[in-house]
C-alpha cells in the first residue's frame, strides 16, 4: 500500500513540473515540439505502438533506474526508454544487424561486433538475418500459443519496449558521437525486439553457424576459407573447438556460487554472481529495477534490448547464470540422392531440400548500391551447413550435413527470465524453469531467504540420449560425441529423430526431469565446467553426455573457485561482505601452482640465461626474484603479475598439458590435480626468456605493478584494472585486448567481470545486496555514467543496492521523471 501511495503521489500534480526540470541521466536535451513515436508493430495490428504508454523512473546513484509501471506494456515502455537514454547507438546498431542492412549502411566487408551472431562480415550477417526474416521464423513463433510460444506478458513487454525506445528517439536529440545524426538510427517495432531476443537465444546454435548457413553453399563448392578446405587431423579436437566456440558465441563465461543457510551468519542463503561478458558492443549488461506494484519487483542486469532482468534478485530470492557445457546443436549427416544433390534419402525415400533465395543490398566503395543473392538450403533437420568453425562438413561424395538447433523454435527466454524474477524461493525457481523451459545456453545458480541453494543445468538441448548416439552416430559422430558432446547422427534413418520427452514443451528437447540439479548443498558453484563438481563433495553424475563430461580435468578457474568457496563454506558464518571480498581477492591459482617452481627453475639456469623461441639467449636472472616475491595476486598494485602473466600465456600455448605438469590429473583428486610444474620441459625456459625479452624491449620493469600495464582509457584518462585472464584461473576474470607494447600493455578490456551482484537476506522486505556494473550504464562518452562504475571496479568497491522504497527515496542523487508517448 505504501508503494502504491508513493507512486500515485509522484504521478500527480508535481511530477509534470518535475519532468520538465529534471533530465534523464545520459539523456540528450529534449527536442522542442517532437512528435510521439508512431511505429506500427505486428503485435498491434498496424496501429501506433503503445497507445499512450508511460512509466515513472527514479534514478539513484550511478544512473541506476528504478522503473515503476502499472502493467507489463508500460513496464516495457519505461525499460525501452531508459535503455535508449543510456545505449541508443549500441541498440540502433543491433537493429541494423537484425534487419539485414549492415552491407547497405556500412559496406559488406566490415565486421559486426559479434553480439548477435558469429558472422564474420556484414554480408554474411545480412544473409543470415534476412534469411530468417524472410522465412518469418520469429513471426511464426510469436503466433504459437504458450507455453511453447511466448506468453501475453512477454509480448506486452516487447511491445512496450519498442514504444519506449521510439518515444525516446522522437523526444530527444542524440549526443553520443557514435551515431549522432546517423540515418540508421530509426524507430523499431515489437517484431524487432522479438527478433533481438531470438538472436540471443540462437547464439550458441544457428547464430554460431551463421557463416556456414549464409555461405553460397553448393554441392561440391570450394570451402569458404583455405583453412576449411583441410580435413582435420583430429575430428574430435575440431569438435572440441566447435563447442568452445559455441560457448564463446553464446557468452564469454561466468562464475556463480550459492551458499546454503548452514554456512551463513544468519541461516539464510547468499549468492555471488560474476558473469564474464563483453565490455563493448551489444552484449553488454544494463542495470535496473523493474516494478509493477503487487505483481513484480526485481532488480538486476539485463542484456541490451531485452525487456526483462536476466540476472537479479527480489526480496526473497537471487539468481545468476553461467554459460553451460551442454551442446545446444546437433548435426545430421544426409545421404543425397544419386544425381540430385538437393534431395536426400530418409528410410529410402527422397525428400527435396527447400531453397531460400536471399538478396542483400550492398553499398560499394563508389557509394553505389548493388545486390547480392545467395541460396540457402533447408531440410527437415534444419539448414545445410558446409562447415562450423574448424570442422569442415563438405557437401560432396553423396553427403551433406544439416544443423539441428531446437532453440530456433523458442522465444521462451523472456518468459524464463520473468518467471525467475517472480520466484520467491529456490523451489519457485525450479518450478519456473520447469514451466518455461526457455534458457538456451546457461546454468542457473540461486539462493533464497529460507537458506536454500540451487544449481541446475536447465537448458534447451537437443534430445540426444546416450542410447540414441550409440545407435545413430555416424563415423564422424563416433569421434565428436564422446570427445565434445557434438552429435553427428544418421539422417537417412527416420528412427534417428530426436523424439520427445513427456515433460518437454516442444519436440526434440530434453524435459525438466533430465536436467542435472543440486539442491541444498552447503555451496553450489559453477565456472563454466560441467555439472560434475557443482559441489566437490557431492559430485553430479549420470546425465547424458550432451550435457557435459565427468571425471575429466577441470579448468584452473573451476579449481580455484571450488578451493575458495569450499573453504568459505567450511569456515561458516558468511555474510555479503565475504562475497565482496571473494570477488576482489584476485588470487591467481596458476601462480599458486607454478610461480615458485618457475622461480626455482629460473635460479637454476646456468649463468642466469635462457634461450628464447628465436634461438637467442636472454639474461633472465632478474626475473627469478620477481617471481619468487610476487604475492600470487592480480591486484592493480601486484608486482610480478605482469611478468608471470606474459610467461604463463606463452607456456600454456606451447606446452601440451601432459608436458606441463609432473603430477597428472586424477579423478580422485580433481580439485588439486594436475599439479607441480614440470621445470624439465624446455618450454619453461623458452617462455621465460620470451617474456623477459618482451618486457625489456618495451621498457617495462619486470616488477612493474599490474595496474600500470593493464588499464582502460576513458575520456583520455587511464583507469587501472585488476583481474586476469582465464588461463590464470582467476575468479575476477579479465580478458584484455591483445598486448600492445607501444600502448603500454593491455589497454582495453574485451570481456570479463560485468554485472556483479552479492546478495543476502535478513527475513525482511529489503535484501542486503551490493552490485557493480564494471563498465557503467552508458557507452556514450558524454554521459556521467560512462566510466563511474569502472573507477569503482578499479578500486575494488561495489554499490549498496537500493531496493526498498525507503532506500530509493532517500538517495541523495534521486532524480524522478515520468516518461510517456505524449
UniProtKB/TrEMBL annotation:
Matching InterPro entries: Ntn_hydrolases_N, Penicillin_amidase_A-knob, Penicillin_amidase_dom1, Penicillin_amidase_N_B-knob, S45
Q: Which SUPFAM superfamilies has this protein been placed in?
A: N-terminal nucleophile aminohydrolases (Ntn hydrolases)
For this UniProt record, give its keywords in alphabetical order, as a comma-separated list: Hydrolase, Signal, Zymogen
- Point out the signal peptide segment: 1-30
Domain of life per record: Bacteria
Database matches in Pfam families: Penicil_amidase (PF01804)
Coiled-coil zones:
none
User: Which PANTHER family does the annotation name?
Assistant: ACYL-HOMOSERINE LACTONE ACYLASE PVDQ, PEPTIDASE S45 PENICILLIN AMIDASE
The UniProt family comment states: Belongs to the peptidase S45 family.
Spell out the protein name for this chain. Answer: Penicillin amidase
- Species of origin reads Streptomyces hiroshimensis
Lineage, highest ranks first: Bacteria, Bacillati, Actinomycetota, Actinomycetes, Kitasatosporales
Amino acid at each position: 500500500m505504501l508503494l502504491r501511495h508513493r507512486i500515485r503521489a509522484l504521478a500527480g500534480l508535481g511530477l509534470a513540473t518535475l519532468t520538465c526540470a529534471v533530465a534523464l541521466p545520459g539523456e540528450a536535451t529534449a527536442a522542442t515540439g517532437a512528435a510521439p513515436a508512431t511505429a506500427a508493430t505486428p503485435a498491434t495490428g498496424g496501429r501506433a505502438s503503445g497507445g499512450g504508454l508511460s512509466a515513472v523512473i527514479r534514478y539513484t546513484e550511478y544512473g541506476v533506474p528504478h522503473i515503476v509501471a502499472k502493467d507489463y506494456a508500460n513496464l516495457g515502455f519505461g525499460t525501452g526508454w531508459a535503455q535508449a537514454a543510456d545505449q541508443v547507438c549500441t541498440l540502433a546498431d543491433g537493429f541494423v544487424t537484425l534487419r539485414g542492412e549492415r552491407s547497405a549502411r556500412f559496406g559488406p566487408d566490415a565486421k559486426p561486433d559479434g553480439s548477435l551472431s558469429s558472422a564474420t562480415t556484414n554480408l554474411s550477417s545480412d544473409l543470415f538475418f534476412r534469411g530468417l526474416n524472410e522465412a518469418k521464423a520469429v513471426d511464426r513463433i510469436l503466433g504459437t500459443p504458450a507455453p511453447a510460444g511466448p506468453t501475453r506478458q512477454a509480448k506486452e513487454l516487447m511491445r512496450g519496449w519498442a514504444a519506449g525506445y521510439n518515444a525516446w528517439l522522437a523526444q530527444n536529440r542524440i549526443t553520443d558521437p557514435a551515431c549522432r545524426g546517423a540515418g540508421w538510427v530509426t524507430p523499431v517495432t515489437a517484431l524487432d525486439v522479438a527478433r533481438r531476443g531470438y538472436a540471443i537465444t540462437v547464439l550458441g546454435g544457428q547464430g554460431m553457424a551463421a557463416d556456414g548457413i549464409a555461405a553460397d553453399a553448393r554441392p561440391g563448392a570450394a570451402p569458404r576459407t583455405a583453412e576449411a578446405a583441410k580435413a582435420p587431423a583430429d575430428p574430435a579436437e575440431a569438435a572440441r573447438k566447435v563447442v568452445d566456440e559455441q560457448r564463446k558465441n553464446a557468452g564469454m563465461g561466468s562464475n556463480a556460487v550459492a551458499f546454503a543457510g548452514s554456512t551463513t551468519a544468519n541461516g539464510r542463503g547468499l549468492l555471488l554472481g560474476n558473469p564474464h561478458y563483453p565490455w563493448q558492443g551489444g552484449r553488454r549488461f544494463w542495470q535496473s529495477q523493474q516494478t509493477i506494484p503487487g505483481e513484480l519487483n526485481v532488480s538486476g542486469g539485463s542484456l541490451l534490448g531485452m525487456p526483462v532482468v536476466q540476472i537479479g534478485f527480489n526480496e526473497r530470492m537471487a539468481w545468476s547464470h553461467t554459460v553451460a557445457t551442454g551442446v545446444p546443436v546437433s548435426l545430421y549427416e544426409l545421404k543425397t540422392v544419386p544425381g540430385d544433390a538437393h534431395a536426400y534419402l530418409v528410410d529410402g525415400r527422397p525428400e527435396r531440400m527447400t531453397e531460400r533465395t536471399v538478396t542483400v543490398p550492398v553499398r560499394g566503395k563508389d557509394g553505389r548500391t548493388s545486390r547480392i543473392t545467395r541460396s540457402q538450403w533447408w531440410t527437415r533437420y534444419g539448414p545445410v551447413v558446409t562447415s562450423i568453425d574448424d570442422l569442415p562438413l563438405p557437401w560432396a561424395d553423396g553427403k551433406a550435413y544439416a544443423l539441428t538447433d531446437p532453440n530456433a523454435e523458442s522465444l521462451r527466454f523472456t518468459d524464463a527470465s520473468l518467471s525467475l524474477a517472480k520466484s520467491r524461493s529456490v523451489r519457485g525457481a525450479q518450478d519456473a524453469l520447469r514451466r518455461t523451459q526457455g534458457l538456451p545456453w546457461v546454468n542457473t545458480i540461486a539462493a533464497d531467504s529460507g537458506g536454500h541453494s540451487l544449481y541446475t543445468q536447465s537448458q534447451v538441448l537437443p534430445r540426444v540420449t546416450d542410447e540414441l548416439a550409440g545407435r545413430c552416430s555416424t563415423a564422424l559422430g563416433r569421434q565428436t560425441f564422446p570427445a565434445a558432446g557434438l552429435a553427428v547422427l544418421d539422417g537417412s534413418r527416420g528412427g534417428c529423430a530426436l523424439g520427445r520427452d513427456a515433460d518437454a514443451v516442444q519436440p526434440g528437447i530434453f524435459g525438466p526431469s533430465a536436467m542435472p540439479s543440486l539442491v541444498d548443498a552447503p555451496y553450489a558453484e559453477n565456472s563454466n565446467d560441467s555439472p560434475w563438481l557443482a559441489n566437490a563433495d557431492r559430485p553430479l553424475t549420470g546425465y547424458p553426455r550432451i550435457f557435459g563430461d565427468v571425471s575429466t580435468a577441470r579448468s584452473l578457474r573451476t579449481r580455484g573457485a571450488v578451493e575458495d568457496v569450499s573453504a568459505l563454506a567450511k569456515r561458516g558464518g558468511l555474510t555479503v561482505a565475504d562475497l565482496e571480498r571473494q570477488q576482489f581477492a584476485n588470487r591467481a591459482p596458476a601462480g599458486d601452482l607454478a610461480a615458485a617452481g618457475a622461480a626455482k627453475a629460473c635460479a637454476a639456469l646456468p649463468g642466469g640465461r635462457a634461450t628464447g623461441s628465436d634461438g637467442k639467449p636472454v639474461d633472465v636472472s632478474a626475473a627469478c626474484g620477481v617471481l619468487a616475491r610476487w604475492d600470487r595476486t592480480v591486484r592493480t598494485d601486484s608486482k610480478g603479475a605482469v611478468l608471470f602473466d606474459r610467461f604463463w600465456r606463452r607456456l600454456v600455448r606451447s606446452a601440451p598439458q601432459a608436458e606441463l605438469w609432473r603430477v597428472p590429473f586424477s579423478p580422485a583428486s580433481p580439485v588439486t590435480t594436475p599439479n607441480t610444474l614440470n621445470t624439465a620441459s624446455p618450454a619453461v625456459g623458452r617462455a621465460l626468456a620470451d617474456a623477459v625479452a618482451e618486457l625489456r624491449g618495451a621498457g617495462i620493469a619486470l616488477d612493474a605493478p599490474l595496474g600500470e600495464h593493464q588499464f582502460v582509457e576513458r575520456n583520455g584518462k587511464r583507469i587501472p584494472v585488476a583481474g586476469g585472464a582465464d588461463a590464470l584461473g582467476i575468479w575476477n576474470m579479465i580478458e584484455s585486448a591483445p598486448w600492445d607494447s607501444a600502448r603500454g600493455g593491455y589497454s582495453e578490456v574485451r570481456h570479463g567481470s560485468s554485472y556483479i551482484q552479492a546478495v543476502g537476506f535478513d527475513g525482511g522486505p529489503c535484501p542486503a545486496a551490493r552490485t557493480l556494473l564494471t563498465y557503467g550504464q552508458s557507452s556514450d562518452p558524454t554521459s556521467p555514467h560512462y566510466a563511474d562504475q569502472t573507477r569503482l571496479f578499479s578500486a575494488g568497491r561495489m554499490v549498496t543496492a537500493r531496493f526498498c522504497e525507503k532506500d530509493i527515496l532517500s538517495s541523495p542523487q534521486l532524480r524522478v521523471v515520468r516518461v510517456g508517448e505524449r
